[in-house]
Amino acid sequence: MKKAFLFLCFFAAICLSASLAAPLSLNEVIKNLQSNQSKIKDMYAETKTTITSNMVMPGQETKGPQKMVQKGKMWTKGESKSKIEMLSPMKQTTVTNGDKMAIINPETGQKMVQDLKRLKGQGTGGKGQESMSLEKAKEFFDLSVAEKDGGYVITGVPKKDNKFLGKMQFFVDPTKWVPVKIVMYDAKGKPMSQSEIEYKKVSDIWVPEKNKSLVTTPMGKMEVEMEFSNIKVNKGISDGEFKVE
């Protein structure tokens, strides 16, 4: 009887300590997210993107939902090198290396090189080419974190007034330490885009396998489903793949 009582006390103590465990801070959640991401030194994948849209541009007639399938390949290395090779329905290669970006038509050989640092200085959107990590997001957003449904939600509110973006939310799976859903809200608090991400383990690292996004605008809706296959991680991609001349 005494042993049974001691066991119940021990069990109750474990349950109490678990219930009193303090939630992680914002910096701790970001650190855990970065621990998985930092394992990826380089990555290659083949992609299939299916876009379904009922958007109607001003002056156009409604023609019903439009569907397009794009196939391609992608290479990434570190935070500043990427290469996207579109194979169909059109062919185009985009290479980013630091502050340089080249857009190449492989059929004609025509190439356009842009200086992203100069574009940023002109305020023409070059900033969007940067890798937007949660750590870097601190520069542009006031971030907070809360527990929800067994996971964490990181909310970012722009530090400067923004007519289009009200806030962003990252839903984090603490068993993998990856964002499984990202939602963007307009200035009135209405969702304008939502992405749900599925992962698979490659070389003991969680990497995206499928990304489903829904974008809502006054002109209609667009659904984008991106699938990654033949994923290779940390196989040693040469810097020559990202040469911009």
Automatic annotation (TrEMBL):
Residues 1-21 form the signal peptide. Residues 151-243 form the Uncharacterized protein TP-0789 domain. It comes from the Bacteria. It holds the Pfam family LolA_like. The keyword Manganese does not apply. SUPFAM superfamilies: Prokaryotic lipoproteins and lipoprotein localization factors. Keywords: Signal. This is Uncharacterized protein TP-0789 domain-containing protein. It comes from candidate division WOR-1 bacterium RIFCSPHIGHO2_01_FULL_53_15. The lineage of its organism: Bacteria, Bacillati, Saganbacteria.
